[in-house]
Design a protein that fits this description.
The chain has 14 helices and 16 strands. The protein is an alpha/beta fold. α7 packs across α8.
Length: 357
């Protein structure tokens, strides 16, 4: 259990990390339809709802989202507004790629379905994570038919200002210094809080199991399994922690989706994600099972894959999850729930750990 009362602990967090690090967990909004992850929800609560009751907070945050985060059907309306007014402010997950052949940067704006927009060099210097994992934030866009920061094929839209809703440049030394101010037990509670959970609800071993879910994110090419009862939050962390985590729930998976699409010439999920989560693996099916399982086992062992003329390496970790209808502490054989492909000894030899759900 926590060493201090909740208010004392949060006071210490605020003192070490600043007010932005402490969010009122008692308020929870259902923002799923807006397509924003949990940590963005918490940021909005922290920024907009200090001292407000939950109902007023929900109205204020919903009003902000309606104004700055358009629904898919409003894409053309917002593009027209941008073209007519010359500028537009949006809340979105912005990412930038470097087109070395054209000597330009390409900005992806999901809300507007623009993949070749432009970005002001100053914005890139201030927010280098745009070039890494992307950044959630409020961006000011300008209609820019002169293509000031792009090539001839660029979309005539420039990102000229960005207010990040997450860390957009990381100084690890700051976290190392902060760590020295907390005991091991306090730091464990802080990590659990950062996952959106209440550490007071868990024993120490349960907290460690929860943190074990972070291993595939922290250690490249780690292959894990987790089985537990339904609706116990097995995918909650992965769904909300990073845009470079993809969850595949049951269904049919093809080699093109996982590794490389020969026709389109695009790399699959294994090549572009940090973690790939296979949920409900008892219902998972593979198109071209013999090919895909061979390549999957080879990748799990070496971190390399090839398909057709494409050869590549990746650090993407793999997590396999399944639902069970009994207490995990009963210790029953997992053969009852894993699909046939996972019963292959060569496959199981490549699994580094199993977490009880």
């Amino acid at each position: 259990m926590a060493l201090q009362g909740s208010s004392d602990f949060e006071g210490k967090l605020e003192k070490v990390f600043g007010r932005d690090a402490v969010v009122e967990k008692g308020i929870h909004l259902s923002l799923g339809p807006w397509g924003v992850p949990r940590f963005i929800e918490e940021y909005l609560i922290m920024r907009e709802c200090t001292g407000l009751p939950a109902t007023s907070c929900a109205k204020r945050v919903s009003s902000i989202l309606r104004r700055f985060r358009p629904e898919p059907c409003e894409k053309n309306l917002k593009l027209d507004q941008l073209m007519s007014d010359g500028e537009l402010t949006l809340m979105d997950f912005f990412t930038v790629t470097t087109d070395i052949k054209k000597g330009v940067h390409r900005l992806y704006i999901p809300c507007l379905d623009l993949k070749k927009a432009m970005v002001h060099p100053r914005v890139l210097r201030e927010h280098e994570n745009l070039l890494r994992n992307g950044v959630w934030g409020m961006g000011r866009l300008l209609y820019d038919p002169k293509l000031s920061f792009g090539a001839k094929d660029s979309d005539p839209v420039s990102l000229v200002e960005l207010v990040p809703y997450q860390i957009s440049s990381l100084e690890i030394s700051e976290f190392q210094e902060a760590r020295s101010k907390f005991s091991d037990e306090e730091w464990l509670d802080l990590l659990i809080k950062s996952l959106g959970l209440n550490p007071e609800a868990y024993e120490e071993d349960q907290k460690l199991y929860l943190l074990a879910r972070l291993i595939p994110l922290a250690e490249p090419n780690t292959n894990m399994m987790e089985f537990g009862p339904r609706a116990t939050g097995k995918t909650f962390l992965y769904r909300n922690i990073s845009p470079l985590v993809r969850i595949v729930s049951g269904g049919v998976i093809s080699p093109a989706q996982l590794f490389y699409h020969k026709v389109h010439g695009t790399v699959g999920l294994v090549g572009v994600m940090d973690v790939l989560v296979f949920d409900e693996i008892q219902y998972l099916k593979f198109a071209g099972a013999e090919e895909i399982l061979g390549k999957l086992k080879d990748y799990m062992a070496s971190g390399h894959f090839e398909r057709g003329a494409k050869q590549a390496a990746s650090g993407c970790s793999l997590v396999f999850m399944g639902n069970i209808d009994w207490d995990v502490n009963e210790g029953l054989e997992i053969d009852r729930i894993i699909p046939r492909f996972a019963k292959d000894p060569a496959f199981m030899d490549r699994i580094h750990g199993l977490i009880p759900g």
